[in-house]
Amino acid sequence: MTNKLWAGRFSERTDKLVEEFTASIGFDARLLEYDIAGSIAHVRMLAKQGIISGDDGVTIMGALGVIKRKIERGGVELGVEYEDIHMLIEKMLVEEVGEMGEKMHTARSRNDQIALDIRLFLRDKTKEIIRLLFELSRAMVLQAHKNIDVIMPGYTHLQRAQPVLFAHHLLAYYEMFKRDRERLEDCLKRINVMPLGSAALAGTSFPIDMDYVAELLDFPKIVANSMDGVSDRDFIIEFLSAAALIMMHLSRLAEEMILWSTYEFGFIELSDAYTTGSSIMPQKKNSDVAELTRGKCGRVYGSLIALLTTMKGLPLTYNRDLQEDKEPLFDAVDTLTATINVNCGLMANIKVNAQRMRETAQIGHLTATDMADYLVRKGMTFRRAHSVTGSAVKYAIQQGKEIAELTLEEMKKFSEMLDVDIFNYISLERSVTIRTSPGGTAPVRVKEALAKAAVELNLDLLLPADCGRPTGDSPA
Fold first, then answer.
1. For the residues 140-152, what does the mean pLDDT come to?
2. 377 is in which domain, residue-wise?
3. 33 and 116 share a domain?
């Protein structure tokens, strides 16, 4: 006979290879605190409903606390013969209080138990990741505020395009991470649903009170269908989708940190604390944190695809395939948490080379669009103005000049509409300042965006008088 808790039906012991192949205790042990919290709430409900006695409930709950401390101290070997964390805790409970411990599993299954554990775990981790995104956004906004007057080239196709404020560039990432926070907040609505009471798949005949358990565990709602309750992993896939987007945004930012910190760009210097050296080339300062951020993006993508693939062919309800949900989730959570955390420090400690950014913005005819706009304001059609300006740029390149370095006489070869005021019109400062459309790079718009971000992040910035001075601490 086998010694499993479910042994009644079986006449042979489980093969050792099967135990090793099917065991999840090696990774689901990190759900310990959630499994015990769920069990305590379940036992309290059983006692409240008279399904077990109050004395039994008190004894079992006390023993669960002892077991939790014992496992946390490392005094328990997590052998594969226990299969999973649920079976280990139940075995230890029976050893602790005797046959009374066997009452704990009344009116529930490992199917709804693990669904609860994962939701409790993911709820905590999602809140932590939202907090870290908040701190990363703060670091970004503070850098933007510190460098509010810095002009840099904006790029399309990785070619210099138009001058923008460096702060405006950073605030583009602020918007990305803001959307990421909002997505996770929305994910929480689907994570925060209590499944315990669904039992194996059909519910239970015992007079349980799921609303009471939900209240004990701080869930605002319970599942509407027991079959969905045990087989739903949409909330994990939704989280992984949001995590993949966050990693994509971090990877894009990392790519720019890598490019900007090269000698070829020279826009920023990364802190020594967030770079590493070469084993052979003494002069090297490598952007390893940013490079690993870019590389780890693929791990989180892999977790998402792995679980989507696992789920795509599963009939209702619980199937052992669902054991494969935890390792991708745990890895994605750990990867994402560590990546955001280290990038908070990376962003907070970059050193901006404002002079180099400005010098680069002055090369490459970045105000050519402004010349075309000037001609449009003089009455020329935009398409014609585009052609005239393109011809002027081609001429400037042939002369080894920037378009702003052409004389008025040279400019008039292309249009008599060009007058002496064109030189002010195509200066870097005016090019940036005049772009006052909503969301544009004009200083007035960037300061408005900073003020709004400061309010959203509870930051105290020295802002224009009409923007106010929000204060406060970050959310818990």
1. 97
2. 368-426
3. no
